[in-house]
């Protein structure tokens, strides 16, 4: 079946948030689609959509996100535009996406995954182990906070929100001595090499589920878009995310739950590592599982069940 490709007259509309990282991801998507179908830049239109999360984050920039809103805060308006036909695709950081999509939308196209590791950013250089007793570290990620306090309970963690540029500015202003950012974001904005940072070994700090992966969402009934996205979909990323996201889904995790998970491929086999922590980092349960790469979803469920068993029934009680 031949499809009617987008053109400068009828461009494919790509919905995204307006942060520099989100825009870089949207343009990467346009570039890959353009290359796959030999289309000019003008066949794509990047549509910036302001979300409730962006608005509320402006109002209460120093309050933890979990106090401001709930799941979907940064995606709701984008998904509404997608459902109503205002845009044709939505580009997302997969680590920010819930494991279930709204009725009528599908999220099954992934670009090749970037480096999934966290980066430790400290103008003073050095590593986590070099930080002096009581040093202030900024992060808004419950996972990073819990993992850090688990290793270094003596450190002080302060809320550090905003986009990558805002957080780096706070470091410069001395609000904290160090912070964490995803390597993937820094790479996609060509910022690696421009700031003092060290990639953290996943053995020391396991990244967020799906970190470094970009997902592209579409309407379920939009066959043209489905065919276009199939051409840029990355199968290895899919196998890895299947395992990680089934691990997350079984734990019933959200961005408010300290959960980490990383799947890696070795030929036809897959190794999944996972960790769950209490928010204060005092308790941590970690494990790993290996099996056939095609069994990722089952491996994810199995590892999650194992960690839930280790942690005990009361572990998630604080979730409220
Ligand atoms: N929650 C914000 C967010 N969502 C995705 C990324 C980084 C890019 C990625 O993981 O693909 C970031 C910023 C960060 O953690 O540094």
UniProtKB/TrEMBL annotation:
Cofactor mode of binding and number, as noted: Binds 1 dipyrromethane group covalently.
GO molecular function, one term: hydroxymethylbilane synthase activity
EC code: 2.5.1.61
Cofactor: dipyrromethane
Gene3D superfamilies reported in the protein's UniProt record: Periplasmic binding protein-like II (3.40.190.10), Porphobilinogen deaminase, C-terminal domain (3.30.160.40)
Catalysis performed (reactions): 4 porphobilinogen + H2O = hydroxymethylbilane + 4 NH4(+)
Highest taxon listed in the record's lineage: Bacteria
Enzyme class: transferase
Swiss-Prot/TrEMBL keywords: Porphyrin biosynthesis, Transferase
Porphobilinogen deaminase C-terminal domain sequence ranges: 240-308
Its biological purpose: Tetrapolymerization of the monopyrrole PBG into the hydroxymethylbilane pre-uroporphyrinogen in several discrete steps.
Family: Belongs to the HMBS family.
Subunit structure: Monomer.
Protein name: Porphobilinogen deaminase
The species this protein was found in: Salipiger pallidus
């Amino acid at each position: 079946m031949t499809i009617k490709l987008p053109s400068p007259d009828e461009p494919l509309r790509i919905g995204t948030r307006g942060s520099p990282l989100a825009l870089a991801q949207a343009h990467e998507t346009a570039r890959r689609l353009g290359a796959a179908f030999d289309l000019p830049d003008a066949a794509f239109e990047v549509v910036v959509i302001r979300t409730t999360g962006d608005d509320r984050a402006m109002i209460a920039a120093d309050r933890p996100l979990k106090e401001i809103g709930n799941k979907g805060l940064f995606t709701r308006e984008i998904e509404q535009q997608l459902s109503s036909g205002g845009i044709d695709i939505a580009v997302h950081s997969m680590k920010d996406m819930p494991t279930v999509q709204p009725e009528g939308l599908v999220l099954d196209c992934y670009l090749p995954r970037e480096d999934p590791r966290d980066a430790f950013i400290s103008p003073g250089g050095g590593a986590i182990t070099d930080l002096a007793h009581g040093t202030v570290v900024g992060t808004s990620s419950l996972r990073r906070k819990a993992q850090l306090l688990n290793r270094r309970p003596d450190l002080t963690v302060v809320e550090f929100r905003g986009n990558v540029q805002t957080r780096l500015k706070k470091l410069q202003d001395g609000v904290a001595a160090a912070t964490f950012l995803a390597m993937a974001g820094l790479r996609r904005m060509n910022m690696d090499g421009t700031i003092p940072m060290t990639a953290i070994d996943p053995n020391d700090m396991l990244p967020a589920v799906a970190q470094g992966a970009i997902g592209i969402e579409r309407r379920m009934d939009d066959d043209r878009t489905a065919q276009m996205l199939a051409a840029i979909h990355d199968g290895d990323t899919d196998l890895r995310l299947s395992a990680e996201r089934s691990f997350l889904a079984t734990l019933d995790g959200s961005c408010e739950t300290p959960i980490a998970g990383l799947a890696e491929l070795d030929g036809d086999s897959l190794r999944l590592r996972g960790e769950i922590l209490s928010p204060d980092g005092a308790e941590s349960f970690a494990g790993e599982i290996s099996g056939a790469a095609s069994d990722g979803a089952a491996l994810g469920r199995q590892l999650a069940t194992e960690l839930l068993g280790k942690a005990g029934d009361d572990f998630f009680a604080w979730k409220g």
